[in-house]
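Reply to thread "Modeling small-molecule complexes from scratch"

Following up on the discussion above, here's a worked example others can learn from. I took a protein sequence and the SMILES for zinc ion and predicted the complex. Inputs first:
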Amino acid sequence: MRASTCRVGIDLGATSTKVLIADIRAGEKPAIAEAVVDRFTFPTPRGSDPIDRLAGHLAGVAEHPISAGGVTIPGIVDEDSGRVVRSVNLPWLDGVALGSALQQRLGFPVRLVHDGRAAAEAEALLGAGRGFADSFVLALGTGIAGAHVEGRRARRGANAAAGEVGHISQDPGGRPCGCGQHGCLETFIGGTYLANRWSAHIDRPATARDLFEAGRAGDPAALEMVDEATTALARSVLGVIATLDPSAIIIGGGISAARDLVVTPTAHKVYRSVTFHARPPILGAELGRWAGAWGAVLAAES
Ligand SMILES: [Zn+2]
């Protein structure tokens, strides 16, 4: 192990926190399995003195010769100042200069980064996007985000608001979306929308995973709902290809875990529909639920 190149990535989630210590040189794209030094999870602290309790959970990282860290949170962050602007799921962090608070307690610089963007950069550089000059990474979860990673960074946009592909309307007369528009991509394939629609159909509480399981078992209504979802996703992917001409499209996030029902049919629909456009590879993500922690590791090195 090259001691001085250890970095720690902290993915602070709404309920659980993932910590990844990796041996990674600046500018390197290591094979991730070889780069892992240690990793662990713990419940995200709540209640009184959460920052001190968070630092307590992280005390074990001092066993490793770490030179820098990165931390991601779900919410709006000011990456330049290292301050959390607003986190709906972790409200105790609102206004906290999390980067410097952790730096004080851990003794090395800690950089705060946006969770979705960090995960996309990791997937592009270390996961399915390895070997491509650039890639567009879609994260399908409760919400839907996209990020175009070119070089080592995802494009942030003039207002740090790039990538809201989930809220491009596909059907102005369609279902109302939480954003105020109608027929957004999210109303077709967002996790909450799929769960709600399947719950209404079977008349009991259900999750998106239940819907995919029913589809796999051959339920025609489930298959129709999934088919509608991937048709909408394929339409969005075609828009991305037309706009950005990326070298690869990577589809990740919890919804994409049903790869046979989501990624493969979406790719087929895109390739059937393209006329003059390019046909970039459409791939499932590889880093899974550790993508955010890898993104934090990558942020730490820069
Ligand atoms: Zn919307």
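What I'd highlight from this example: The pocket of zinc ion is lined by residues 167, 177, 179, 181, 184, 186 (CB under 6 Å). Residues 131-285 form a domain with the Nucleotidyltransferase; domain 5 fold (CATH 3.30.420.40). Questions welcome below.
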